[in-house]
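Example 9 (inverse folding). The structure is encoded as follows.
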């Protein structure tokens, strides 16, 4: 980004883009093209509409809305007006939404629709700072203090006409050190923290991303479905506008797989869960197919893996291997890639660890996943693998213009212009996070190799110390367990215990297909999980994972849970990470019981 504020960047791209396509918006079974001109016009109306309400520069504006065009309009409109946006996850429960609104002292809230409005309606009387609620879709009639977006836009047009030049001078007043956003952390380790970032943090990182991944180009298409309330979704949105990539919105989180086929994006950013699901699905389909197809798939995967390893060493496959790959690609991989739209240059994964096995599986079929690592406190990314330099199992090298260090106790340290300003209302926590030399203490443990590739081991606080005094990173073992196609989720436990235990959940596709082959009539996953033959079968699979581990790392006993951990039950973050504390509170007694039988 050649500009140092998002305001300048947005206005420049709207002008340059003109009538070319900025967004693809799902509407009535198709995608409507929206031009830069249109976005420029509507966001100006929104910015002026908010100014017409008498809000002051720097006031906080919240957005409670899913990943869709209207979110982008609300965010850009507010930012252009000099306001600070504090988004809320659409999946948040009422009390979580209220917490954020109160914590950041929001003066205005954009709310997606009736359903989201119902979430906060009861809290309005407890939020004296919240003067206005604006509904982005649906009918605001009869809802106190609530206006429709059309009324705001119309007020904005009138205000703009009555105050010539006021919009320009406001957007221009905003400087690089001004606050851009208060982004709440995922809440994996405790209540979410309000991370205050400045314009220059995101402006810097957008430029840095483009340097790290120069294959990003104007006119490519990106499919957005990650929550925009999360820093990764936010950065992705800023970057797409900066580079002038066409942003297509998925219809919703459940249609992503289908929308991939329709939109055929060039780039996609996701959390590992999506890749894990795709992997499990492919394996389940193969296990359902006839012997010939199974053999063909195994052969192709073997060839793909060989080619992948060759490419990982920086070599180009030649001779017989190249020929075999040609056929493997024709017969198997091309079809798999078609399910991903067939046009992807690469995927990006972040937010949680991606297993090296899954990364290699995708690479074998011709799709490179570039894993990155970061946190809300550094606008979501601080290291990333590059198209020309990647190592599976690592999160890549430091972003251009930033530094990575490792503290004496193994903690990953981060320094650079992407590091946040402060935790809102918590100076003590800010001082603890950023030391006097400007290093951000990530709370994660990792190692750097001689070529500068970072490996993230686990969170410092999650490291399990067994009663035998061994330090174990549960994430590694969880990922190994999840590589098994029957295992959907894994949670490893055992701090101050003699050995490790785990909670596992079953992949529905694989398990149901297996049960069918075994002649087990039960189709309900919860009841299936309780069957002794299922437990015995899983035991064998756990045994084989244990075979790859040192004795003290092995999972000696496990509980099969009848359903996946979920966001609704408060067990997962909006980025689908397991909240360990919640899981221990809920299921600790099940796990403790495993030790009692000794
Ligand atoms: N590629 C990755 N591999 C391993 N861990 C990752 C990766 N990317 C991100 N993480 C984890 O995610 C964290 C950042 O996530 P985020 O800022 O969304 O909130 P959180 O740390 O999960 O939640 P909270 O701070 O509220 O507990 C990192 O500190 C790290 O633990
Ligand atoms: Mg964190």
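The amino acid assigned to each position is listed next.
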């Amino acid at each position: 980004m050649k500009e140092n504020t998002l305001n300048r960047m947005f206005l420049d791209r709207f002008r340059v883009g003109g009538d070319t396509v900025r967004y693809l918006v799902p509407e009535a079974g198709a995608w409507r093209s929206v031009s830069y001109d249109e976005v420029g016009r509507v966001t100006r109306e929104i910015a002026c509409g908010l100014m017409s309400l008498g809000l002051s520069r720097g006031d906080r504006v919240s957005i409670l809305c899913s990943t869709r065009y209207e979110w982008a309009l609300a965010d850009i409109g507010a930012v252009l007006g000099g306001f600070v946006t504090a988004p809320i996850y659409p999946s948040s429960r009422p009390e979580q939404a209220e917490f954020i609104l109160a914590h950041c002292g929001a003066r205005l809230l954009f709310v997606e629709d009736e359903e989201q409005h119902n979430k906060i309606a009861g809290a309005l009387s407890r939020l004296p700072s919240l003067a206005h609620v604006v509904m982005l879709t649906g009918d605001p009639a009869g809802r106190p203090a609530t206006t429709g977006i059309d009324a705001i836009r119309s007020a904005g047009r009138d205000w703009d006409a009555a105050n010539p030049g006021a919009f320009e001078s406001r957007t221009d007043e905003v400087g690089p050190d001004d606050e851009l956003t208060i982004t709440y952390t995922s809440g994996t380790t405790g209540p979410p923290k309000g991370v205050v970032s400045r314009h220059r943090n995101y402006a810097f990182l957008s430029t840095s991303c483009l340097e790290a991944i120069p294959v990003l180009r104007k006119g490519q298409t990106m499919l957005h479905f990650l929550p925009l309330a999360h820093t990764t979704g936010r950065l992705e949105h800023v970057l797409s506008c900066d580079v002038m990539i066409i942003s297509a919105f998925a219809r919703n989180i459940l249609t992503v797989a289908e929308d991939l086929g329709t939109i055929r994006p060039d780039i996609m950013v996701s959390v590992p869960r999506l890749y894990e699901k795709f992997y499990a699905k492919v394996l389940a389909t193969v296990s359902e197919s006839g012997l010939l197809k199974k053999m063909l798939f195994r052969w192709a995967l073997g060839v793909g893996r060989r080619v992948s390893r060759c490419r990982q060493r920086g070599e180009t496959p030649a001779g017989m291997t190249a020929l075999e790959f040609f056929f493997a690609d024709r017969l198997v991989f091309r079809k798999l890639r078609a399910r991903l739209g067939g046009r992807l240059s690469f995927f990006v994964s972040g937010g949680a660890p991606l297993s090296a096995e899954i990364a290699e599986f995708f690479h074998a079929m011709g799709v490179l996943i570039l894993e990155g690592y970061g946190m809300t406190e550094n606008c979501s990314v601080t290291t990333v693998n590059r198209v020309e330099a990647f190592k599976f199992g690592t999160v890549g090298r430091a972003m251009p213009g930033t530094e990575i260090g490792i503290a004496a106790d193994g903690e990953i340290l981060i320094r650079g212009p992407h590091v946040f300003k402060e935790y809102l209302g918590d100076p003590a926590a800010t001082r603890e996070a950023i030391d006097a030399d400007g290093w951000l203490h990530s709370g994660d443990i990792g190692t750097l190799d001689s070529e500068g590739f970072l490996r993230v081991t686990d969170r410092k606080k999650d490291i399990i110390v067994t009663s035998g005094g061994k330090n174990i990173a549960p994430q590694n073992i969880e990922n190994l367990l999840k590589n098994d196609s029957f295992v959907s989720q894994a949670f490893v436990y055992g701090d101050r215990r003699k050995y490790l235990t785990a909670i596992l959940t079953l992949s529905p596709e694989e398990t149901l297909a297996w049960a069918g082959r075994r002649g087990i009539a039960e189709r309900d996953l919860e009841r299936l999980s309780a069957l002794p033959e299922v437990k015995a079968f899983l035991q064998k699979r756990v045994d084989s994972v244990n075979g790859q581990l040192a004795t003290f790392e092995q999972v000696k006993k496990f509980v099969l849970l009848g359903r996946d951990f979920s966001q609704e039950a408060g067990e997962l973050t909006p980025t689908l990470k397991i909240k360990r504390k919640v899981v221990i509170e809920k299921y600790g007694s099940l796990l403790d019981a495993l030790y009692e039988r000794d």
